[in-house]
């Protein structure tokens, strides 16, 4: 039944009351006018000055009856079951010691069949109910005979008629009060938490969400409504079905403020935040329930933390890290230890960590603004200076034109040197491919290496005694080579091949330049009986007297020191 139907019933009851009052008033007027009472008769009987339908009721007693109307709107309207008697005193007419009119107790029950809002009340039914109440609660009068004898019978009849009229008025007033109380109780019952909860739940269970919203909202707006999280969930769900998501969100927040761990309200609120693209609110909700038993209810809405390409730890060199997140997410990060937000640096390329201790904190934020938990990566960078350079050759006696080479120099490292023993710096001569000693004399070669972090190695110093270049003859070259073959256990002191037998013989080929060095090109033969076998090819530097092993690769000769 709609609220309009409820108002129609109340209006119909009001009209029925008006007709009842009119009828009772007419009865009283008829009884009174049948035989008018003279003014002087009334003056003779001062006891009767209060006679009359509207004057016979004690105001305080009427107040006590009508006070039942003033019920608290916030409380449930319960069935009135007080069956205690109440009596309305009618003033005595005549000289009798007492004349009272007693009204039998009336029990008012919230009869579902009588007052159900779904019943279509009409005027005839309302009157029937009122008549039934009158018949069930008759007004009885107990009159004592006046002690004064000899009174005129006609005067007594007039007084009796007045009493009857007054009693009828009282009865009408009592019935009116009872009906007003019943109507008021019925009206207030429709505003009560219990009534609206039951009606709203009934409509919700039958998926009549429009009516469910109407009644559950009324229940929600009571004090008790703010203490029923399950009812608030039903109201929110009904609001969602009628496309009132914003109101549903507010109701669910109220439900969770009363019952924080409600397992129905929480996931529905998360879903609404996602549907309405309220990412910030959803992030806060996820954070609020982190570590609680209900954290799993929000797992579908969480965003995974970013990951790093480099595991946190200690490094001796700078490191570059790449941050990664789920598809569609944007990464925001900090490197100063502060908590990242969407106002922090937006990740777009590798982050370079070059020195000291650095903590990278990052969050991933999806398309609606839901942020992940903070991912934290700690890197400790202890930069290492280059090792002291190694020079080759390391012998102190060299010939003019000797080239000094630094071994193991990295591509991102630079070397600087001096030839007088002073400590080199970045302002000294820069090394490039070698240091050539092109004049005779004594040199102290000092070298440092500086890496990409501008850290310098220890200084390496080597003294060189550079002499003028000598030219060796072919015979001297063959003698130098034979001595080297003997020292390397290739040929015995007697001139035979070690381990294989046969006599070793050196055969000069020519003088040529191989691998940048001018040398004598010499073949080693082995004579055994009547046969001769070539064992290999060697070279001796014309100017440096150094021995070499020569390899022929399809006509291309190469030499390696021997």
From TrEMBL:
InterPro entries: GH29D-like_dom, TPR-like_helical_dom_sf, TPR_rpt. Residues 127-147 have a biased composition (Polar residues). Residues 312-375, 401-460 form the GH29D-like beta-sandwich domain. The chain crosses the membrane at residues 162-183. Residues 109-154 are annotated as: Disordered. Keywords: Membrane, TPR repeat, Transmembrane, Transmembrane helix. Gene3D superfamilies: Tetratricopeptide repeat domain. The keyword Transport does not apply. TPR repeats lie at residues 229-262. It holds the Pfam family TPR_19. PROSITE patterns: TPR (PS50005). The keyword Transmembrane helix applies. Residues 109-121 have a biased composition (Acidic residues). SMART domains: TPR. This is Chitobiase/beta-hexosaminidase C-terminal domain-containing protein. It comes from Lachnospira intestinalis.
